[in-house]
Fold this sequence. Notes:
Largest sheet: 3 strands, mixed
Number of helices: 5
Order of helices and strands: HEEHEHEEHEHEE
Shape: elongated
Strand order of the largest sheet: 1-2-3
Strand content: 25-35%
Radius of gyration: 20 Å
Structural class: alpha/beta
Amino acid sequence: MTDLSLEQAVRSALRHEPFLDSERIVVTVSAGVAKLAGEVETRTQKLAARYRAQCVSGVSEVLDELDVRTPHRIEQRVDDIETGVMNALFWDAAVPTERISAKCEKGWVTLTGEVERPYQRTSAEADARKIRGVIGVTNEIKVSPCAAARATRGGVIATKGVGAPAL
């Protein structure tokens, strides 16, 4: 497949992503390496564009040079973003909201706190990334070493429930 046909295939894939404005993304391909440049409104859109480009048969690598730029009409105050993140965490049953805090500076959210399980840390970050106005997330949430030690005994993961050994 030629670079030109590969470039057209990547553009087509981006046009089929329903929440992307593919007109704001410049695609170039050289030796099977697709380069994405331009602007998107959210980090989620940036990840979706990169994923769509990677899925095109013949693309060996994707260079992501997309900028996340929230349009002026929807720029949000820091307080609004922090509140949005905390609300998203509250509605996620996997995340112990009372042990996590979020701070925002120029669209960049920093999550801090401590959880018992790694999936809770991952879920909190995923929730924060979905909030409008968030450009990026720094996840400083710690996984409690005490909880991890209690969860494993002798190399076997112990769970509460029927048939599980008592802790």
